Amino acid sequence: MRRRLAVAAATVLTLSGCTVAGNAAQDGKEQLVVGYQSKTINTVTAGTLLRAQGYLEKRLGDKYQVVWQDYDTGAPITAQMMAGKIDIGSMGDYPLLINGSRGQQSEQTRTKMIAVTGYNLHGALNTVVVAPGSPIKSLAQLRGKTVSTSAGSAAHGLLVQALRKAGVDPEKDLKVENQQPPIGASALQSGNVAALSQFVAWPGLLVKRGEAEVLYDGGELNVPTLHGTVVRQQYATDHPDVVKAFLQAQQDATDFLWKQPLKAAEIVAEQTGLPAEVVYLYNGANGIATFELPLKPELKQALQNDVPFLKSIGVLQGIDLDAFIDSSYLPATTGGNGAVLSGTDPICKTPVGAGAGELWLTGEETTQPAADATCLLKAVKNAEKSGKQVRAAYVPDTVTGTRWFADKSIWVQDGTHFLPFITRAAAEKYGKGTVITYAQAVAAA
């Protein structure tokens, strides 16, 4: 499997999913070509949201024409950067490492990682899902099965590490298909694969649609995962002011997301066709992703720890991480509180904290916080009694803290307390109380 995945990943890396813009400037303007992934919504501050709000164009002025190129994954962005046809791009951690490694093979192709977009310190941006009603209830039951993932992605890394932790040999005990996210999603629906391991926003989207249920929450692995911004070194050397303007614009987008997370989610949803409820799951207040430009020490260490896996599957020869990471272009001010829930729970009348849930009612321009999972259920019940429609309800997993849809969670009633879990296995492992459905939990709250 190792050789097949290495060849497949290398093949994907050389393919482009988008028409390449020419180098000719229009109306005497110099082109800046930006590669992004609209549906990989933890890169929105360097992609979809940034583009929609026009922050980069405002920062650059009339001298530059920004050409935006949209891709499904980071691999084709890297291929175009190596060819000198994309100047700045954004992608996940594993593709970033592959980008840096490939760039370091030649002085002309060197790249620099200059900022982070979104991250999760526990790895919850990646998830393994199965079809609804699947008999597979644990990773160990994937033995002898076929699983879809994108070779060389962080979702692939999650799959391999989680399988090994569960005592399953990912090379000998199952077949792994290297597929783009939408292809893998179709394969799961058709029954051609038993499970799908993918990155944001595919797991949330499939679960929201009722087309999948979670088998393994990436937060269980407790390994940081991140997305970031990368630039061609030669371009940065020739145009340092443009690179700094890009990161200032990325900070503008980050500030907007921090201050107006609901509005930001709706903008991204409109631009991508993704449901706003799914975007907000990841990018909203207390969302699965945290947006911040600086590379935290624990994130840098996570990148270093990812290198052996990428070497083991043959997609990375090696990388000088210190030479690849460059924080010198960051704006002077990048700090903030992030998009966090605050205020007082209107039902339980208590301040909200880290374990807060959130209720989004149809037709409402704001959401309401819930102090805990039990208070959230009471808020849902109250809304339903008032004839209001729940657009989305979010609640953190009892063990991992990963935020998820309340109506897609597995619930445990333990006396007067109600505890949500993303997977049935986690709910059953809890060992106390009674496993119940979401509807039963709402009724009993």
TrEMBL record:
The keyword Signal applies. It comes from the Bacteria. Keywords: Signal. The keyword Membrane does not apply. InterPro entries: Solute-binding_3/MltF_N, SsuA/THI5. PANTHER family: ABC TRANSPORTER SUBSTRATE-BINDING PROTEIN, ALIPHATIC SULFONATES-BINDING PROTEIN-RELATED. Belongs to the bacterial solute-binding protein SsuA/TauA family. This is Nitrate ABC transporter, periplasmic protein. It comes from Actinoplanes ianthinogenes.
